[in-house]
Write a structure and sequence with these properties.
By secondary structure, the chain is α/β, with parallel strands linked by helices. The chain has helices at about 15-20, 30-40, 55-70, 80-85, 95-110, 125-130, 135-150, 165-175, 185-205, 225-240, 245-250, 260, 270-275, 320-330, 360-380, 420-435, and strands spanning about 10-15, 75, 110-120, 160, 210-215, 220, 280-285, 290, 300, 340-345, 385-390, 410, 415-420. Bound molecules: 5-hydroxymethyl-3,4-dihydroxypiperidine. 5-hydroxymethyl-3,4-dihydroxypiperidine binds near residues 18 and 397.
């Protein structure tokens, strides 16, 4: 089969700090990403998310674009420091009002929100108290989850707790490329792993409705045939593809990394972490080539040779998506809930032409090939229920600032003008055809 079932969920995904802007409005206080991006030399173009896509003020225009696309669901994240601006834990009504307006607007357009509570923007007040190295941050996260659920829960179709724990742990706390910019030894960073998982488990207990876990996956290939590179690739596979999935689905850490995490685990923790959700979200972009190094982290991740590349330098490898889905299916068997592709997309150097169009044929080919890869996994017996393109709009791509464009819609950051790209029309037709 090549088509998708009529009840397949079609969506687009985004995250608060990457699109909202309004960094200092209506009582929001800084997150670690505000602090990090404002520091010298942290983003490729020196930019911040202060304004981003100004989605905070222009959400109605953006929801109209989503309605035009015909999507079923919008995957968004909530800004924790908009909701809980300081360590007192008191909710900020104006922050909640924004998400109220957004969810109402989605409901008016028949779009179901998939709401994620944390997409890397820890409140600075929580970082000042020790951030994810501090066990108490997990409890504070559950308080925040309860506030959001109480106010927005009546309109949320699907909840998720934390997006891509692996990237937040690795880039934010080991390599220092992302906020909070820490370069901790692995023995210390291991606490971050456990506290993220604990936070997710505690939050899962207070969220009502459908729950979805979300992690990024990528096949890890050895860079060469050497034993050292094979071992490095095997270790990276555990780090990215199992460390955050085994505990939630199986209730245990991978044996290879257990000694590292164990000092942070208290009695009863794994029962909290082991909160199997109703759906599992897969964020997929590329495959990785891994080679051994002598550093404190004994491996390096490279783009594999022999593939076309996106403007980010990432290999275009749709077969890796089929592989990831079938591997999850085999690895977790009856423990695996149905899957959803919660992010898939690509960055290209898209420009608006003289006629006012933005022709991103490379993205059309990329998405088309990746949808075929999803279908191939479904044909092989994997239960996949939906697909979200990353992203609706070009947006703030973390350490890359505004230099990498992932959107179906081009954003002119000087004027905030939105220009649907060729891929926007293609995705709209694709969705319509599958109804
Ligand atoms: O933009 C990010 C997103 O925030 C998390 N997943 C990967 C995307 C592209 O890098």
């Amino acid at each position: 089969m090549t088509g998708f079932p009529p009840d397949f969920t079609w969506g687009v995904a985004a995250a608060a700090y990457q699109v909202e802007g309004a960094a200092n409005e209506d009582g929001r206080t800084p997150s670690i990403w505000d602090t990090f991006a404002h520091a010298e030399g942290t983003t490729a173009d020196g930019s911040t998310g202060d304004v981003a896509c100004d989605h905070y003020h222009r959400f109605a225009e953006d929801v109209a674009l989503m309605a035009d696309l015909g999507i079923d669901s919008y995957r968004l994240s909530v800004s924790w420091s908009r909701i809980v601006p300081d360590a007192s834990g008191r909710p900020n009504p104006a922050g909640l009002d924004f998400y109220d307006r957004l969810l109402d607007s989605l409901a008016d357009n028949g779009i179901s929100p998939a709401v994620n509570l944390f997409h890397w923007d820890l409140p600075q007040w929580a970082q000042d108290a020790g951030g994810w190295q501090q066990r108490d941050t997990a409890a504070r996260f559950a308080e925040y989850a309860e506030i959001v659920a109480a106010r927005l829960g009546d309109r949320v179709g699907t909840w998720s707790t934390i997006n891509e724990m692996f990237e937040h742990f690795a880039l934010g706390h080991v390599t220092g490329e992302h906020a909070p910019g820490l370069t901790l030894p692995l023995e210390e960073a291991a606490g971050v792993v456990h506290h993220l998982l604990l936070a997710s488990g505690h939050a899962a207990q207070v969220l009502r409705g459908r729950l979805m876990g979300i992690t990024s996956y990528a096949p890890a290939r050895p860079h060469t045939d050497s034993d050292a590179d094979r071992d490095a690739a095997a270790l990276y596979d555990v780090l990215q593809n199992r460390l955050f999935t085994d505990p939630v689905l199986l209730g245990r850490y991978p044996a290879e990394l257990e000694p590292l995490i164990e000092p942070f685990v208290r009695e009863g923790d794994l029962a909290v972490v082991h909160a199997p959700p109703d759906l599992w979200g897969v964020n997929y972009y590329s495959i990785n080539s891994v080679r051994a190094t002598e550093g404190a982290v004994p491996l390096e991740v490279l783009a594999p040779q022999g593939f076309p590349r996106t403007a980010f330098g990432w290999a275009v490898a749709p077969e890796g998506l089929t592989e990831v889905l079938t591997t999850l299916h085999e690895r977790y068997a009856e423990h695996l809930p149905p899957l959803v592709i919660t992010e898939n997309g690509c960055a290209y150097d898209d420009t608006v032409d003289a006629a006012g169009g933005c022709d991103d044929l490379e993205r059309v080919v990329f998405l088309d090939e990746h949808l075929a890869a999803v279908r191939a996994a479904m044909n092989a017996g994997v239960d996949v229920r939906g697909y979200y393109v990353w992203s609706l709009l070009d947006n703030f791509e973390w350490a890359e600032g505004y230099t990498k464009r992932f959107g179906l819609v081009h954003v002119d950051y000087a004027t905030q003008r939105r220009t649907p790209k060729t891929s926007f029309g293609w995705y709209r037709d694709r969705i319509a055809a599958s109804r």
